[in-house]
Write a structure and sequence with these properties.
The complex is a heterodimer of chains A (408) and B (438). The model of chain A has no long low-confidence stretch (mean pLDDT 84). Helices cover 63% and strands 5% of the residues of chain A. Chain A is mostly helical and 408 residues long. The mean pLDDT of chain B is 85. Chain B is mainly alpha-helical and 438 residues long. Chain B folds into two domains: 266 residues, MetI-like fold (Orthogonal Bundle); 62 residues, no CATH class. Classes of the chains: A mainly alpha (408), B mainly alpha (438). Chain A: GO terms for molecular function: transmembrane transporter activity. Chain A: Keywords: Amino-acid transport, Cell membrane, Membrane, Transmembrane, Transmembrane helix, Transport. Chain A: It is found in: Cell inner membrane; Cell membrane. Chain A: This is ABC glutamate/glutamine/aspartate/asparagine transporter, inner membrane subunit BztB.
């Protein structure tokens, strides 16, 4: 006797299956969701069109090509008030990127230092770092920015205090002058022969890298390590120093000084807006506190057995850190670190509180108020931040994928 | 033999020596200092550096704060008192600005006769959330929780009580209809009725009902306008409403992002990435300046409400990412177990997945909450009187012009206390929920 090979009972498709059959239900829900989303977007756009029409406005980015007519306190790219609003926005973008870049570098340094020191066996240092981290993490960034700015603009002396042979105020390390008119950093003066020196420097960096590569390949091939660090330092330092002396010191440091007569004003050096310094310092310390916690968690996440295994294999403490602990800790550290960098970039928009001319202050501030184009300005502003965020997270995610654990 | 042996041994000790105390440098405070502060050259340098740093930081600040003047009505008076008390050139804090202006810092421009209302609203809020936060409290407190939002709204903004009551009835109606129909096994109908009935009720019945009730029993508090809210009251209102509204929204978004349904997951991803890619400041400007473009003509609802909505939407995206991390950390077996037991999606989520995922994400969620609370200070930039803007406006008065640190120190310390206690609560909760398996 053969058993008839019957498939599942075939039934005609019924409408109720769209709701009660799990095979089709998700389709129904998605169609409804799509319909609702489309309806919402259509509703918003219809309102927008009607409102713009009633206000007599249009949606047009032409204002970007009109004359801006306002000055910006800090311009890293050439700009005058005769330039267009687009140019002003560019100046703002460069300023935003400047403070974000500076902040990322210093916050990383501060964060790593504080995170490592918080794990120090030294009780006092550990406690001090805990206080630092908890103080900065639990108070709003806006308050820190305003406070640092207040310190810079209220408690620093006027430039006149730096005048004369025995001034009332002293510069930090004799180089940096904090005044209520801005901060003055020393600048490098490029003399004759500086180009040669720069080429020399580039060549030595190249040579040092080549040496490192050679040493590594040799060690991989023969097992014989070559001294890499000291040779690299020598390659970097010696030729450049010799050239520096031979060329007659073509590069010199110019320390800002107050001119001896007339209105007290600094000559030489680089003048940096106090708002930039305030923003930079506050962003550094605030983000540094968060990074410190990330670094600490990352180091603690590497189990003690790894260190012990490395010691058992005969690795020295320095190599243990560099070859065993750090690569594993980095895997834990990098993803949250990325989001801290993104936070820092977004937080730099708080520049508006101290009047630093970032993109929020130019495009989303003066330009928006002058032209009355809120919609277009804010759209562009949001787009700028979005693009920066996405690009950075893309790049760092690629890096993260490279260092992450290869599971096979 | 044994005798002989006894003679060869010169001396046999029959008592134990008393133990010698450890060397001085290995006990007590000295040992602690040696081990923790001066164990090596590097540590000695670090210790000295740390002490020097502490000295530099505290040498001026502590005496300044300690000498502070607490009673004065203006900065000039404050300085006169200081010059009377201390030799010339001594710096002293002027805490009098806090005693003089504490009401503005805490309550903003809330009418002086009504300032009992915000604290009472806070108490109601705490009572309503306490049974959720602390499992030991009596379960009966949960009955307060659904009523609390309406009660709090009424306490804060005032007006007739019947408006919030009529609005609350709509929710009750929706829930009742949903429960009745789902018990009768009409799930789709129950969902539809649960949404449509309240909407119909709010559009046609709620208004007249509230007016009629107000006519019968006029129970009202003096109304307070949103522009009168300020100081820490404003921060706490925005912060707490943002926190309580963004958590459910964040959970939904996280589930949406991990959903199998393409459209839902793509929409969630788009929403989360766009919100997270743009700073809150820009979103607040959207709320202030361009949200009205997207609403029907003539709608002009309260700036404070718009800010609360924007902050909620913003925080929800961050919380969604945190919860997504928690969901991803759960082993796949947990999801499959739910399916194997024949649970529906929502049952599996509610009973198996979310309790575990939320537990894992507690530290992250609380961090987002702390961030949200700190971010409420950003509303000062769109002209709302949060503590920071309030401080600027106090500094703009003739009496207190020129005062700086005292106000900011107070604001900073208050924020610190709030945020620090939140983070301690999260650590406590994490320990309590720890089940010992990792």
């Amino acid at each position: 006797m053969t058993i008839a090979q019957a498939g599942p009972p075939r039934q005609a498709f019924r409408l109720s299956q769209l709701l009660y059959d799990t095979r089709y239900r998700s389709l129904t829900i998605q169609v409804i969701a799509l319909f609702l989303l489309a309806a919402l977007i259509a509703y918003l756009i219809r309102n927008l069109v009607v409102n713009l029409h009633d206000l007599g406005k249009d949606f047009d980015f032409g204002f970007l090509n009109r004359r801006a007519g306002y000055d910006i306190a800090q311009t890293l790219i050439p700009y005058t008030n005769n330039d267009t609003h687009l140019r002003a926005a560019m100046v703002g973008i460069v300023n935003t990127l400047l403070v974000a870049g500076l902040g990322i570098v210093t916050a990383t340094i501060v964060g790593i230092l504080a995170g490592v020191l918080r794990l120090s066996k030294n009780w006092l240092v550990g406690r001090l770092m805990t206080v630092y981290v908890e103080t900065f993490r639990n108070v709003p960034l806006l308050l820190w920015i305003i406070l640092v700015y207040a310190v810079l603009s209220e408690s620093t002396p006027a430039p006149a205090a730096f005048r004369g042979d025995e001034p009332e105020a002293s510069k930090l390390f004799g180089l940096v002058a904090f005044t209520n008119r801005g901060t003055y950093f020393p600048s490098l003066v490029w003399g004759e022969g500086a180009g040669t020196l720069a080429i020399m420097l580039l060549l030595s960096i190249l040579a040092a890298l080549l040496w490192q590569g050679y040493a590594r390949r040799r060690q991989a091939a023969t097992g014989q390590p070559l001294p890499s660090l000291w040779v690299m330092v020598a390659i970097l330092v010696l030729p450049v120093t010799v050239a520096f002396v031979l060329l007659g010191a073509p590069v010199s440091v110019e320390v800002p000084t107050v001119r001896p007569t007339g209105i007290a004003r600094f000559q030489g050096g680089i003048n940096v807006l106090n708002s930039l310094v305030a923003l930079w310092v506050a962003l550094t310390l605030y983000t540094g506190a968060f990074i410190a916690e990330i670094v600490r968690a990352g180091i603690l996440a590497v189990s003690k057995g790894q260190t012990e295994a490395a010691f058992a294999l005969g690795l020295r403490p320095g190599r243990t850190t560099r070859l065993v602990i750090l690569p594993q800790a980095l895997r834990v550290i990098v993803p949250p670190l990325i989001s801290q960098y993104l936070n820092l970039i977004k937080n730099s928009s708080l520049a508006v509180a101290v009047g630093y001319p970032d993109v929020k202050a130019t495009l989303g501030g003066v330009t928006m108020n002058q032209t009355g184009r809120e919609l277009e300005s804010i759209l562009l502003l949001a787009l700028f931040y979005l693009v920066v965020s996405l690009v950075i997270s893309l790049v760092l995610n690629i890096y993260n994928r490279r260092i992450s654990l290869k599971e096979r | 033999m044994s005798e002989l042996h006894a003679q060869t041994v010169a001396q046999v000790r029959d008592t134990m020596l008393p133990p010698v105390p450890p060397p001085r440098r290995e006990t007590g405070a000295i040992r602690w200092l040696r081990q923790n502060l001066f164990s090596g050259p590097l540590n000695i340098i670090l210790t000295v550096l740390a002490i020097w740093l502490l000295w530099v930081a505290l040498r001026d600040v502590v005496p300044w704060a300690w000498r502070g003047v607490w009673r004065a009505s203006s900065l000039n008076e404050c300085r006169a008192i200081r010059d009377q008390l201390y030799p010339e050139g001594t710096s002293a804090a002027c805490w009098a600005v806090l005693t003089d202006r504490w009401r503005q810092l805490v309550f903003g421009f809330y009418p002086a006769s009504q300032i009992w209302r915000p604290p009472l609203a806070l108490v109601v809020f705490l009572l309503a959330v306490s049974p959720i936060l602390f499992a030991r409290l009596p379960r009966r407190l949960l009955w307060l929780t659904p009523a609390a939002p309406f009660l709090i709204f009424w306490l804060l903004w005032g007006g007739t009580i019947w408006g919030p009551v009529a609005a609350a009835l709509g929710f009750a109606l929706g829930v009742a209809a949903f429960l009745a129909l789902s018990r009768a096994r009409y799930p789709i109908l129950a969902l539809l009725a649960g949404i449509l009935l309240p909407v119909l009720y709010w559009s046609f019945v709620a208004g007249p009902l509230a007016r009629a009730l107000a006519g019968v029993a006029p129970l009202a508090l003096p109304a307070v306008a949103s522009k009168d809210f300020g100081g820490f009251t404003l921060s706490i209102i925005i912060g707490l409403s943002g926190i309580s509204l963004s958590l459910p929204l964040g959970v939904l978004l996280a589930l949406g992002r991990r959903s199998d349904m393409l459209i839902i997951s793509k929409a969630s991803v788009f929403y989360i990435e766009v919100i997270r890619g743009v700073p809150l400041i820009v979103w607040l400007f959207v709320a202030q300046l361009i949200l009205n473009y997207f609403l029907p003509r003539g709608t002009n609802f309260d700036l404070m409400l718009r800010v609360i909505i924007m902050v909620t939407l913003f925080a929800a995206a961050y919380i969604a990412e945190v919860i997504r991390g928690g969901l991803a950390a759960l082993p796949r077996g947990q999801y499959e177990a739910g399916d194997a037991l024949g649970l529906t999606y929502w049952q599996a989520m509610q009973l198996i997945v979310l309790p575990q995922a939320l537990k894992i994400s507690i530290p992250g969620i609380v961090n987002s909450f702390i961030g949200l609370f700190k971010d409420t200070t950003l509303v000062s930039i769109i002209a709302m009187f949060d503590p920071i803007r309030m401080a600027s406006s106090i500094r703009a008065t003739t009496a207190w012009g020129g005062i700086y640190w005292e106000l900011y120190v107070f604001i900073g310390l208050t924020f610190w206390v709030f945020c620090f206690s939140m983070s301690r609560y999260s650590i406590w909760l994490e320990r309590r929920l720890e089940r010992g398996h990792r």
